[in-house]
Design a protein that fits this description.
mainly beta; four-stranded antiparallel β-sheet; seven-stranded mixed β-sheet
């Protein structure tokens, strides 16, 4: 069982930056960790992921260049650096983990709210 705790959300003006953190209770057995977001009235959507051992990153095309996922192995923590934020980035951001390449993400954090004002 992997427990994930997100932090770092908040209110920011358009054009600003935020860094989200996701602290994991255990990453030894994790294959990859990812960030998803859910805007009001929409489904949860993939943002970015990173493999724990090789640090291979994947991004949704629309966010490449503005968002960066990274990790700190020593702290069992994954980060999402978000720059040049836009009002449409407003959403609840979730951290997730999966244990194998073919699995779906089956461990989720509670989410952290990001609100971007215009």
């Amino acid at each position: 069982q992997v427990q994930l705790v997100e932090s770092g959300g908040g209110l920011v003006q358009a054009g600003g930056s935020l860094r989200l953190s996701c602290a994991a209770s255990d990453t030894v057995s994790a294959y990859a960790m990812g960030w998803f977001r859910q805007a009001p009235g929409q489904g949860r959507k993939f943002v970015a992921s990173i493999t724990w051992s090789g640090a291979t990153t994947t991004y949704v095309d629309s966010l490449k260049g503005r968002f960066t996922i990274s990790k700190d192995n020593a702290k069992n923590t994954v980060y999402l650096q978000m720059n040049s934020l836009k009002p449409e980035d407003t959403a609840v951001y979730y951290c997730a983990a999966k244990m194998t390449p073919l699995q779906t993400y089956n461990f989720w954090g509670q989410g952290t709210q990001v609100t971007v004002s215009s």
